[in-house]
Design goal:
Helix content is 24%, strand content 23%. By secondary structure, it is of the alpha+beta class. The protein has 2 domains: 128 residues, RNA polymerase II/Efflux pump adaptor protein, barrel-sandwich hybrid domain (OB fold (Dihydrolipoamide Acetyltransferase, E2P)), CATH 2.40.50.100; 209 residues, Chloramphenicol Acetyltransferase. Strands 10-19-18-17-13-16 form a 6-stranded mixed β-sheet, covered by helices on one side. Strands 3-6-8-1-9 form a 5-stranded antiparallel β-sheet, with no helix packed on it. The protein has a 4-stranded antiparallel β-sheet with strand order 5-4-2-7, with no helix packed on it. A hairpin with a 4-residue loop joins strand 11 and strand 12. Helix 1 packs parallel to helix 2, helix 6 packs across helix 7 and helix 6 packs across helix 9. It is globular and about 90 Å long. The relative contact order is 0.11.
Amino acid sequence: MNILMPQLGETVAEGKITAWFKTIGDAVKPGDNLFEIETDKTSMEVPATTAGVLSEIRVPAGTIAPVGAVVAVLAEAGAPLNAASAGAGPATVASPPIKAPAPARAETAAAQPAQVEPARATTPLDPFHPIRTPAKNFGPARLPGGRTVTPLARRLAAEAGIDLTRIASSGPHGRIVARDIESAMAREMAPAAAGARPGGLGADRVKAVYAPGSYEEVALDNMRRTIAARLVEAKQTVPHFYLSCDVTLDRLEALRAEANASAVAGADGTPVYKLSLNDFLIKALAHALQRVPAANAVWAEDRILRFRSADVAVAVAVDGGLITPVIRDVQTKTLTAISAEMKRLAARARERRLQPADYQGGVATLSNLGMYSVREFAAIINPPQSSLLAAGAAERRPVEAHDGGVRFETRMSVTLSCDHRVIDGALGAELLAAFKRAVERPAGLMV
């Protein structure tokens, strides 16, 4: 029985096997972890669903393989091992070529258990088997002339606006597969004039500017590739505009200090909770989204989706990038519940153990760089979300008093990035004003 690279999500075409937990000849029973997959945002263990003996490992650890590729073979107990595999450990079995890593195109979804199917009389590596790819309708499965198109290739062509009838096919029996679409996309991005490439100079031309040996080359991992691709896409396709204001934090900070001082000690003698400024900002943003429901929405190409609950994503810096776990139904949660959930999600994010359900979705994101003494910044929206609130440092600033004198207040500059397709200027201003009121009248956040 063939063990296939599991489907990692509708828009993910490949996965990287980082470790094998079984060696050739090991007995396998349902539920045993076979291998670990690394995606752009997390890593996950893939269990077996069928009992047997591991007779072949076709995709070594450290190799990227397409979804649906045969990564190993499971034999019945007592059956002879594959001659090429007998006595070999993981990553020693020759396998058909696996394509090199390609830039990640989207967020991943939860990995399903390893897919096991009976061995069939086809090519050993059938990475685009239609049964193992999304079944959405992205165009005709059969073209004039009898050629067929895999579902993955249809989706990629639809996203890139490529005419399938003009694509040369390289798959078995004249089938158009994903690599054909990727080749067509690469040709479209070929140098247009004087060796220039849209979107960048290319590694060789950039390196030529600097003296050899004056730099270190750092390979891109899946997370950095995905961040780069998504931010370029967001900046190029989402019509951003920005709104800024200052909010006064004195009443909020006094309330936060009082709440933390009231926290009872747990069994270990430490307080059971400690509210951060970020916890209040998360709650205030959700409060504003509830007060301005037209802004609690996302763009869906031919329509706008408006939500009843306020799901707020929070940017978390991790080694090599960042990720935005989502706290859902914030409007129904207390500040202590938000604080505990945020700490849990942040810890799992830094360990690269978030599941797709932890970071997919959300309507707005909060990004706080105040701890780095950043006074003010404007951030790029994370599609399909429609807004992002960037918070700077809390500072003591001089302001004019009502009597003409000068007094000091603790203030913070915030900038709201808006998707103009969903949020117009006046609507964005209304959302920002609602956030400002919630922060400056923080008692309403405690109920």
